[in-house]
Amino acid sequence: MEQVKSLKDYPAEVQAEVKQVREVVATLHEQLLKWNLVVWTAGNISQRLHTADLMVIKPSGMRYESLTPESMVVTDLNGNVVDGLAAPSSDTLSHAYIYRHMPNVYGVVHTHSTYATAWGATGQNIPCGLTMMGDEFGGPVPIGPFKLIGSEAIGEGVVETLKKYPHSPAVIMQNHGPFTIGKDAEAAVKAAAMTEEVAHTMWAAKQLGQIIEIDPEDIAKLNDRYTNVYGQH
Amino acid sequence: MEQVKSLKDYPAEVQAEVKQVREVVATLHEQLLKWNLVVWTAGNISQRLHTADLMVIKPSGMRYESLTPESMVVTDLNGNVVDGLAAPSSDTLSHAYIYRHMPNVYGVVHTHSTYATAWGATGQNIPCGLTMMGDEFGGPVPIGPFKLIGSEAIGEGVVETLKKYPHSPAVIMQNHGPFTIGKDAEAAVKAAAMTEEVAHTMWAAKQLGQIIEIDPEDIAKLNDRYTNVYGQH
Amino acid sequence: MEQVKSLKDYPAEVQAEVKQVREVVATLHEQLLKWNLVVWTAGNISQRLHTADLMVIKPSGMRYESLTPESMVVTDLNGNVVDGLAAPSSDTLSHAYIYRHMPNVYGVVHTHSTYATAWGATGQNIPCGLTMMGDEFGGPVPIGPFKLIGSEAIGEGVVETLKKYPHSPAVIMQNHGPFTIGKDAEAAVKAAAMTEEVAHTMWAAKQLGQIIEIDPEDIAKLNDRYTNVYGQH
Amino acid sequence: MEQVKSLKDYPAEVQAEVKQVREVVATLHEQLLKWNLVVWTAGNISQRLHTADLMVIKPSGMRYESLTPESMVVTDLNGNVVDGLAAPSSDTLSHAYIYRHMPNVYGVVHTHSTYATAWGATGQNIPCGLTMMGDEFGGPVPIGPFKLIGSEAIGEGVVETLKKYPHSPAVIMQNHGPFTIGKDAEAAVKAAAMTEEVAHTMWAAKQLGQIIEIDPEDIAKLNDRYTNVYGQH
Fold first, then answer.
1. Residue B149 near chain A (CB below 8 Å)
2. All domains of chain B, ordered by start, with CATH?
3. Which residue intervals define the domain Class II aldolase/adducin N-terminal in the entry (chains A, B, C, D) (predicted)?
4. Which residue of D has its CA nearest to A65?
5. C214 and D175 in contact by Cβ < 8 A?
6. One digit per residue, pLDDT tens: chain C, 233 residues?
7. Contact D73, D86 (CB under 8 A)
8. Kind of pairing, strands D73-76 and D54-57?
9. Which parts of B35-164 fold into alpha helices (H)?
10. Do the Cβ atoms of B130 and C39 come within 8 Å?
């Protein structure tokens, strides 16, 4: 097994990025609370660095009140701790797997948000009945396979599922909860918030009767416009 | 195509109203968060001016924390930007269409609020089973047609639907979400909050069994009293 | 029609109680927001005085941010305004009717809280499946008749229903929403919060399958202990 | 009946622990509000001492705004008041019973949280369809028997049920609500928050269709890893 370098052996620009990303990742955890995506210590956020093959991730089982930039853990992309006083999230190996296999992804978020997780407990994709889903997910929100926690098996399931749904930034792991990806941690947090919102709305719609699904051609138009025109360019 | 005037070429009273309306529209976005009507950057509010054929609207895809009076965009009633540093909301052409075709409307709000949008995903009007609906909507809350985002097609669908439901300040666009109108932006925000509340209540009622709908004659009495007697005159 | 006295013609002790009750009633409206019982301007609270046949009630259609002790309206028990700059709540005549016909009641609250109102839209009593309901309501939460707004007809329906359910501090008016009573306004606000909580819980239980109703003998024991032993005596 | 000692007759180290635990228990009640587990005065928390056979518990029927460390009541493990100005919680005898019969338990929490209580109104265990349930509960969340309030009967029902479900820190008493246990009050509050979250998620899943239950072998693996690896060791 290769020797893991300590953070102090990395160049100054890496150390500077670590400092900035620790701040970003610690602060973004407040958004998980703000949008009601987590209870107690559940949920975790990571961001990959651009200056080295490292990532910054939440420590394991620590309450949100105690999260500080300094408590965020730095690991390499095999999940080995490079800097930090606490053990990293139980999902570290899965975050690392996603970064190794999806080179455009620089942010990963995992929650057990209520309605997304409810869909996951039944193994059903969330059908695409909202223009907001066409925009954000380019179709249904897919369900990934059942996997035990602690190894990189969940990461494998996430990557395998997202390959089949290339427009979706979210996969809901069966019996578990959503994982979301993005170009940075903020984008992945946004995807986590949107996943719960569409999960809740489509859940409520299903209780009312027959959902009208959107035509795949219209979904493609929505997704294209949203990806290329929406927001500030 | 006519030349679009810049804001500095408008009379002083127009510039003064723009300044005041930017403040109003920016501040009202807090109410969308307060009443849980929006997630992340979703939702937008506009208000038409009284001193010129202009409106003030939220910029596209900007997070609520970043909204300031200065970031609000001023456009004419064809959606052309007259003042502002950012691109206006994706729904600008639809807001503009509504103002051009409904001369008493000076405020428009759009959200994806959860339960209203759930009714929209099934294409069903919300039946009138609450005195509060008789008061505010004068009957059921209507569903509008499915339309793609980005052109004025949504505005057309809103206007066409509200013509058939002249007492309703709200229409829920199929597979999309509610648009509400009012004599100013605050009235349209109130209508958005009431739309979500009655959508949630009637959704919950439907899960309990048979809803008792209110007699149309009683609805007319409720709506008349509310419009003419309620509040501070 | 008898001449209505102005507040300044009442004895000093009445004016002192009015001042204190205005503070109480204004402040209690914050609890309606805290427990998610109201949206926008919906909902109202009143408290009857002990020193004169007067009551203090919320003004009509005013936003919660604007409510101050001074804005609370004083009326006699026929709903005539005795002091105040604004028109009193649309439900004033019904509050007054309740006070005239239930001499032990000194607080009345009305809301459109979501789940209680949903039961009201279907005309079904909330069945007693919680020890908390045995404690607080001594049985099911009853539904009252459908009545139009603006006269004392709603008050009549409330009183008539509560006579049949003497242990309940709450009645849910059909297609409208809950009215609650108490020995003061705070007790009625508590009853409003408990009504929504049991409405929500029993609504959720009904979606799971068969509710186990509590035996009436056990309900009587719960209600007796709660009324006579619970709390600080 | 034996004479109950007053707190001032206990050694200094007991008095010091009482002071510290009163602070802990008073402060933890804020978490019940934060995670929406209680309405008005419902819910109570206790913690057992390590230096004497005493416990600290919430006073009966007091609003959360009024809870201070000083208002917390100290009782012995038969529920006799040893120190405090107010009457202890109605559930004191049941908390005491749990401590006497489960020697590793030093924290007990009781709430009427909405979705957990809804399961309790139907008498159904919450099925294990979430890895989070495997982690925290080692299987389904069990329902305990119906018992009246005020004696130690509820405590008996809790202990009897948890003996059959040795990995679960929670039991939902039929028609009543959840009781949770832990190595201290904070752990029991965490279990209360997790109980409501899994109750809500599994309730929502049941509305979507068939729940996929997790294989008991996988549940055992999840529970073992969570108990022995998760968090900071």
1. yes
2. 7-228 (3.40.225.10)
3. 23-203
4. D31
5. yes
6. 457 889 999 999 999 999 999 999 999 999 999 999 999 988 999 999 999 999 999 999 888 888 999 999 999 999 999 999 999 999 999 999 999 999 999 999 999 999 999 999 999 999 999 999 999 999 999 999 999 988 899 999 999 999 999 999 999 999 999 999 999 999 999 999 999 999 999 999 999 999 999 999 999 999 998 888 766 65
7. yes
8. antiparallel
9. 92-101, 114-122, 131-137, 153-164
10. no
Count of other CB atoms within 10 angstroms of residue D52: 20
Q: Which amino acid is at A186?
A: E
What is the spatial distance between Cα A181 and Cα B16, in angstroms, rounded to a whole number?
Answer: 45
C-beta separation of D159 from D97 below 8 A:
yes
The structure tokens 């950057």 sit at B41
Question: The tokens of C161 are what?
Answer: 């229903």
Q: B95 by DSSP, 3-state: which? A: helix
Residues A170, A161 contacting (CB under 8 angstroms): no
SS3 C47: strand
User: CB contact, 8 Å: D129 with chain A?
Assistant: yes
Task: Compute the C-alpha angle B134/C29/C226, nearest 5°.
Answer: 100
Question: Is residue B178 a contact partner of residue B94, using CB atoms and an 8 Å limit?
Answer: no
Q: How far is CA A7 from CA A24, A83, B79, in A?
A: 18, 6, 52
**D64 and C CB contact within 8 Å:** no
How do D44-48 and D54-57 pair as beta strands? antiparallel
Q: Which of residues 186-205 of D touch A (CB under 8 A)?
A: 190, 193-194, 197, 200-202, 204-205
Q: Rounded to a whole number, what is the distance in Å from the CA of D232 to chain A's nearest CA?
A: 6
Q: Does B64 touch chain A (CB under 8 A)?
A: no
ipTM over 0.90: yes
A216 touching D (Cβ < 8 Å): no
Q: What is the DSSP letter of A69?
A: G
Please name the residues in contact with A89: beta carbons below 8 A apart, sequence gap of 6 or more. Answer: A44, A46, A57, A58, A59, A60, A73, A95
Of residues B86, B122, B149, nearest to A209 (C-beta) = B122
Count of A-D CB contacts under 8 Å? 95
In one-letter notation, the amino acid at residue D79 is: G
| Dist CA D103 CA D75 (whole Å) | 17
DSSP assignment string, D170-227: EEEETTTEEEEEESSHHHHHHHHHHHHHHHHHHHHHHHHS---PPPHHHHHHHHHHHH
The answer, for B139 touching chain C at a CB cutoff of 8 Å, is no
CB contact (8 A) between residue D193 and residue A59: no
How big is chain B, counted in residues? Answer: 233
CB contact under 8 A, C40 and B194: yes
D73-110 pLDDT, tens digit per residue, is: 999 999 999 999 999 999 999 999 999 999 999 999 99
Q: Does C112 touch chain B (CB under 8 A)?
A: yes
Alpha-carbon gap: A119 to the closest alpha carbon of chain D (Å):
6
